[in-house]
Design a protein that fits this description.
By secondary structure, the chain is α/β, with parallel strands linked by helices. Helix content is 32%, strand content 12%. It has seven helices and five strands; from the N terminus they run βαβββαααβααα. The protein has a three-stranded parallel sheet with strand order 1-2-5, with no helix packed on it. It has a two-stranded antiparallel sheet with strand order 3-4. β3 and β4 form a beta hairpin. α1 packs across α6. The longest helix is centred in the middle third of the chain and has 15 residues. The chain is globular, with a radius of gyration of 16 Å.
Length: 204
């Protein structure tokens, strides 16, 4: 396996647009299941754009976000009916988006599964997005911590700084007449708005 074909990145929940812009590089993408849980990350959250501005969705996890554990051990909490709330929010944001009807069924199906582990939910959603982006990517789950982590310079992949990316992917968004363009939202925003054109925009 050629090292130039490898890219290591953190496994996120329906990640931001630029996560995919980075991760489509190379033939292989590596997720480190022994990564320490980061409470200030997109590991269990994503950001959308709704009629009242930015919307943050967060998957509840057992033992709370402050726990010290490995990503592979983080379990999803179902004490609250978060899946229904999530889906209603997504419909509210994108029901009128041009490609929502084409993609919504698969997203709904995965979100309403009762995954025990967060890593399994994230992986299934990421693979679905690769499918819609027509990206042929071989995924490696690094269970032995063999490969390096994502370069720390990619700081815009965290919730605190994600919209400070100097080279965002730009496209027409819902509610842009009210809020202007909001960079680096969840990949759902790009897919629901641009459909098959999303891959081309990521590859520019």
């Amino acid at each position: 396996m050629n090292e130039n074909e490898l890219y290591s990145i953190d496994l996120q929940f329906i990640p931001p647009v630029n996560w995919f812009k980075i991760s489509i590089k190379g033939k292989y993408i590596i997720f480190n299941s022994f990564e320490k849980w980061k409470k200030m990350s997109f590991g269990n959250r994503c950001t959308l754009l709704g009629g009242n501005g930015l919307v943050n969705l967060s998957v509840p996890i057992e033992k709370g976000r402050d726990q010290k554990a490995l990503l592979r051990g983080i379990k999803i909490s179902y004490l609250d009916n978060w899946q229904l709330k999530f889906w209603r929010t997504i419909i509210s944001c994108y029901n009128r988006a041009p490609f929502f009807e084409y993609y919504k069924d698969d997203f709904e199906k995965i979100l309403f599964k009762k995954h025990e582990l967060l890593v399994d939910l994230n992986l299934e959603l990421v693979l679905l997005c690769f499918k819609y982006l027509d990206v042929n990517k071989e995924v490696i789950m690094d269970d032995e911590h063999k490969y390096p982590h994502l370069d720390a310079t990619d700081h815009f992949l965290t919730p605190k700084l994600f919209q400070q990316d100097p080279h965002p992917v730009t496209y027409h968004q819902m509610f842009s007449d009210r809020f202007g363009f909001n960079p680096n939202l969840s990949i759902m925003d790009l897919l629901f708005m641009e459909g098959p054109e999303a891959k081309h925009l990521l590859s520019k």
